[in-house]
Each structure stands twice: as structure tokens, then as C-alpha cells.
């Protein structure tokens, strides 16, 4: 797959002084990609390989070895998923077209093409079948997530960007043995935070001044970021204590 075509000809940015033929382990690729895609995991890279989107070389002992062309393909896929919520089927078709295209001099770095990135996750519309293909969620699990209120399908059956991110996170958690019923606590905790933040934002929301409304939106984003930071620190500290570190 990665021996010809635009993706192979356009490896994207690489560290200064890096040899053209240098190959990387999956851990090195992960470290490289996480600067731009911090949620990427080794399991994610293996999944994309299983889906035929990248084809790293293998050593005699079976270890994966990635070229910079492979990294460029992975960056393309991750960008298309993150910014445009494209399903893997569409991304694969784009890569196939690039592979078949004739060589062109001085091609720019790979950039996902398609619909423009939505200005807000709520503006994104992703059909159910694309959510299933992108996240790998079982249809029965997706139905269960709707039943317990973690995600909501909008008529006539599409999901917004936040719902896609929620499903991706849930699929990752279920790989470690969590079940949908365990996630009710996440929904309840989020609802409590929303209630608290709504009270804090109420004075701004009640104002008819457009500037006040804009401040309310910015304040909401700041509260969300601080909440995520606090939650991550609390969980990290708690696990460190449990692990005796």
C-alpha cells in the first residue's frame, strides 16, 4: 500500500537530520503523533493497520517498522477523523485515489479533503452507519448508550460531533472490561457539573447584551477546560495512590 502513490511520495514533516530510509517502532510513531493527536494509542494504530489504512514493514521477529510515509498516512487519517469526522471508508477511498495519482513535484503535506470542519461539534451531522464504522462500536452497544442517555440520536438518525467523541471514549473503556451500565456514573457526574456551571453562567445568560452572551460562551469554555484539568488530576492522583507510587 505504501510503496507508491501520493502518500508514499509525501512523507510530511520529519525531524531535522532524519535519514530518509529510517524506520521507527510503533512506540516511536506514537510519540511523534501524540504531539498533534494526544489521544492516539498503540491500539488505535493497530486498528488502523487492521483496517488497511497503513501497512508497516515487519521484522523477521514480527515487530512493526514504520517509514515516514506511513506516518504521513496516519497523520492524514487522524486529521480527517478529528477535523471532519470522516468514516474510515471515505478516508480509505481518498488514500486510494492518492495512491493512483501520477507523481507531482513539490506536493504539500497531506491534508484531509472533504467537507469543511464544523465550527462547533453540535453543527456536525454523522449518520449512524458512519459512527459505527469510525468508532468500531457494536450496534447493540450504541443502542444501549442511547438508552442510558450518554448519546442522543437527532432525527432522522444522525449524531453530532460530541456524540462521536463519547462513543469513541466508551469503546476504548469497554476494551478494559467496563460495561455500559458502569458509565451511568459519568453521565450523573457530568449532569451535576452542568447544573453547577449553569448557575455560574446565569447572570450573563440573562442579559440581552450580545457582548454578555459572548462572554457567557467564553466562560463556559473556560469552565469546561478547568473541569477537565481538575478531573484528570484527581483521577491521576487517586490511581497513583492505589498503585503505591
Automatic annotation (TrEMBL):
Superkingdom of origin organism: Bacteria
Skewed-composition ranges (Basic and acidic residues): 117-127
Region (Disordered): 99-127
InterPro entries registered for this protein in UniProt: DNA-bd_dom_put_sf (IPR009061), MerR-type_HTH_dom (IPR000551), MerR_fam (IPR047057)
Residue ranges annotated for the HTH merR-type domain, each copy included: 45-97
Entry-linked Pfam families: MerR_1 (PF13411)
SMART domains attached to this UniProt entry: HTH_MERR
Keyword entries, A-Z: DNA-binding
Gene Ontology molecular-function annotations: DNA binding; DNA-binding transcription factor activity
PANTHER family in the record: HTH MERR-TYPE DOMAIN-CONTAINING PROTEIN, REDOX-CYCLING DRUG-SENSING TRANSCRIPTIONAL ACTIVATOR SOXR
Designated name of the protein: MerR family transcriptional regulator
Organism, as annotated: Paractinoplanes ferrugineus
Amino acid at each position: 500500500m505504501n510503496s507508491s502513490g501520493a502518500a508514499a511520495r509525501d512523507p510530511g514533516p520529519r525531524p531535522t537530520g532524519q535519514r530518509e530510509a529510517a524506520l521507527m517502532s510503533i512506540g516511536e510513531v506514537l510519540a511523534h503523533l501524540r504531539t498533534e493527536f494526544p489521544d492516539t494509542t498503540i491500539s488505535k494504530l493497530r486498528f488502523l493497520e487492521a483496517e488497511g489504512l497503513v501497512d508497516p514493514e515487519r521484522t523477521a521477529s514480527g515487530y512493526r517498522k514504520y517509514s515516514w510515509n506511513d506516518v504521513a498516512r496516519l497523520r492524514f487519517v487522524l486529521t480527517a477523523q478529528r477535523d471532519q469526522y470522516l468514516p474510515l471508508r471515505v478516508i480509505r477511498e481518498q488514500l486510494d485515489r492518492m495512491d493512483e495519482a501520477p507523481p507531482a513535484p513539490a506536493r504539500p503535506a497531506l491534508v484531509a479533503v472533504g467537507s469543511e470542519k464544523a465550527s462547533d461539534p453540535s453543527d456536525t451531522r454523522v449518520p449512524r452507519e458512519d459512527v459505527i464504522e469510525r468508532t468500531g462500536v457494536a450496534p447493540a452497544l450504541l443502542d444501549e448508550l442511547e438508552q442510558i442517555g450518554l448519546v442522543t440520536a437527532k432525527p432522522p438518525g444522525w449524531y453530532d460531533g460530541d456524540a462521536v467523541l463519547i462513543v469513541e471514549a466508551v469503546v476504548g473503556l469497554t476494551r478494559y472490561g467496563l460495561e455500559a451500565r458502569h458509565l451511568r456514573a459519568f453521565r450523573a457526574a457530568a449532569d451535576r457539573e452542568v447544573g453547577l456551571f449553569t448557575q455560574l453562567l446565569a447572570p450573563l445568560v440573562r442579559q440581552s447584551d450580545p457582548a454578555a452572551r459572548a462572554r457567557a460562551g467564553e466562560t463556559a469554555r473556560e469552565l469546561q477546560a478547568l473541569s477537565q484539568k481538575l478531573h484528570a488530576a484527581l483521577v491521576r492522583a487517586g490511581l497513583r495512590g492505589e498503585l503505591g507510587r
